[in-house]
Amino acid sequence: MINDDQLNTLTISCGLIMITLIVVYHAISSTVAGNEKPNEQKVKPLN
Q: What single-letter DSSP state applies at residue 8?
């Protein structure tokens, strides 16, 4: 059976890993979005 200290360590570790992955994803996403050409639009206007 898992005790409280092990559960606490597991929870904190999973939380830190999740936050790290979110920060890495955001950094990669913003870097890729920053490399697009300035006149290039993601959505074309309807007119």
A: H
**Phi-psi sector, 37: left (phi>0), alpha (psi -120 to 50), beta:** beta
Q: Strands (DSSP E) along the chain, which ranges?
A: none
The whole-model pTM stands at: 0.64
CA dist 26 to 15, 19, 34, 37, 42, Å?
17, 11, 12, 20, 18
Instruction: Supply the DSSP symbol for 39.
Output: T
Residues 1, 28: Cα–Cα separation, whole Å: 40
What is the per-residue pLDDT across 1-24, written as a single tens digit (0 to 9) for each? 999 999 999 999 999 999 999 999
Which amino acid makes up residue 7?
L
